[in-house]
Design brief:
By secondary structure, the chain is α/β, with parallel strands linked by helices. The protein is built from 12 helices and 14 strands. The protein has helices spanning 14-32, 45-51, 57-65, 90-98, 122-125, 167-182, 198-211, 224-233, 245-257, 297-310, 314-329, 347-356, and strands at residues 2-10, 35-40, 68-73, 101-109, 130-136, 146-150, 157-161, 187-192, 218-223, 240-243, 266-271, 276-280, 333-334, 344-345. It has a 10-stranded mixed beta sheet, with helices on both faces. Strands 6-7 form a two-stranded antiparallel ribbon. Helix 1 (14-32) packs parallel to helix 12, helix 6 (167-182) crosses helix 7 (198-211) and helix 8 (224-233) packs parallel to helix 9 (245-257).
């Protein structure tokens, strides 16, 4: 099969890590008989430099025409003084909106070979954890009206942000979560604040109703404050966590941090169609850009997610994940995950090792 991939290398370490990911996809193509056609486009700071804006219509059109989008990272101090409407990060919001991406999928798992990087005590971690946070991306308080008004208690000016969720939005993210759980450990934890919020009461009712379509998947509900605590108390209890945009923003970062290795974690943003946008969770790491030392694993694992979720190529995705695990198990490390006494590989060397292990 032939697949068209729009590639946004972006800023900072973006070009270095995405190059390794593209080479890995090419190797997968040779091994499994697929062709991946890459079309590189600009977004973020490099697009501001070239076009004066972080996201052009041309980039949007090419991404829309592609089977999927691979992204490095955008942003950096060079563009920090740009007015907020034109900042590099606006490119990500614009792409998510234009491509109709409503679900953000972030796995957080502990690699046995990197267990000592996990900030939680081994007796709590036990056998480890393998969590997927499924965060709704286009609704909630982030997309309600934001305004100021005079407090009716006479306390002066107040800021207001409307929190909204429709049944439609909750149903579609809930279905994504249940479908994901079906091919994993068949457990969904829905996180809300239904003891206080009306949006959360509608969320809980809707998720409970959708769950009836998936009798093979166990559903439980948790308040967000408890979920934040349980993630560090007993992360092994979770399989798929489904939650709204605001709670998901916070919990997905918390889940990432307990792995102890931010350079390892991939993510996917997906919508109704098969097309998704795949990117590492970390940023453009301007402090190490151009030094050839960035860890390419999160971006390479993002390609595995693309193969699995957008192209239905599960064996190919498994092959990439197994190659990463084998590379780590044989003691190969980039600087961010190495101990003082370990030999450190460059970005290119780590990419090459993973490809050797494919
Ligand atoms: P960051 O994730 O870029 O870096 C945080 C720390 O982690 C740095 O010390 C960095 O060197 C290290 N790090 C990150 N990725 C690494 C990798 N692959 N290998 C080795 N070390 C790695 O976060 P930040 O410093 O807060 O942000 C830097 C820029 O990235 C900012 O402009 C921010 O807006 C942007 N950003 C972009 C995205 C995105 O494009 N999706 C996400 C987050 C931040």
């Amino acid at each position: 099969m032939k697949y068209q991939i729009a590639v946004i290398k972006g800023d900072g370490i973006g070009p270095e890590i995405v190059t390794e990911a593209m080479l890995t996809l090419e190797k997968v193509g040779q091994k499994f008989g697929h062709t991946f056609d890459f079309q590189e486009v600009l977004a973020g700071g490099c697009s501001i430099d070239a076009n004066g804006i972080p996201l052009t219509q041309e980039t949007i059109d090419i991404c829309k025409a592609a089977d999927s989008v691979l992204l490095g990272a955008v942003g950096g101090p060079k563009w920090d003084s740009v007015e907020s409407a034109k900042r590099p990060e606006k490119a990500l919001l614009g792409l998510r909106e234009s491509l109709g991406l409503f679900a953000n999928i972030r796995p957080a798992m502990m690699y046995k070979a990197l267990a000592d990087a996990c900030p939680i005590k081994p007796e709590i971690i036990g056998e480890g954890f393998d969590i997927v946070v499924c965060r709704e991306l286009t609704g909630d308080v982030y997309f309600g009206n934001h305004y100021r008004k005079e407090s009716d208690r006479g306390w002066g000016e107040m800021g207001c942000d409307d929190m909204n969720y429709s049944i439609y939005e909750v149903e579609r993210i809930a279905r994504r979560a249940f479908e994901m759980a079906r091919v994993r450990s068949k457990k969904v934890t829905s996180v809300d604040k239904s003891n206080v919020l009306e949006t959360s009461r509608l969320w809980r009712e809707t998720v409970t109703r959708v769950a009836k379509e998936y009798p093979d998947v166990e559903l439980d509900h948790m308040y967000v404050d408890n979920a934040a605590m349980q993630l560090v108390r007993n992360p092994g209890q979770f399989d798929v966590i489904v939650t709204g945009n605001l709670f998901g923003d916070i919990l997905s970062d918390e889940a990432s941090m307990i792995t102890g290795s931010i350079g390892m974690l991939p993510s996917a943003s997906i919508g109704e169609t098969g097309r998704g946008m795949y990117e590492p969770i970390h940023g453009s790491a301007p402090d190490i850009a151009g030094k050839g030392i960035a860890n390419p694993i999160a971006t390479i694992l993002s390609c595995a997610m693309m193969l699995r979720y957008s192209f239905g190529l599960a064996a190919e995705a498994d092959a990439i994940e197994a190659a990463v695990e084998k590379t780590l198990n044989s003691g190969h490390r980039t600087a961010d995950i190495a101990h003082a006494d370990e030999t450190v590989l460059s970005t290119c060397e780590m990419g090459a090792k993973i490809r050797d292990n494919l």
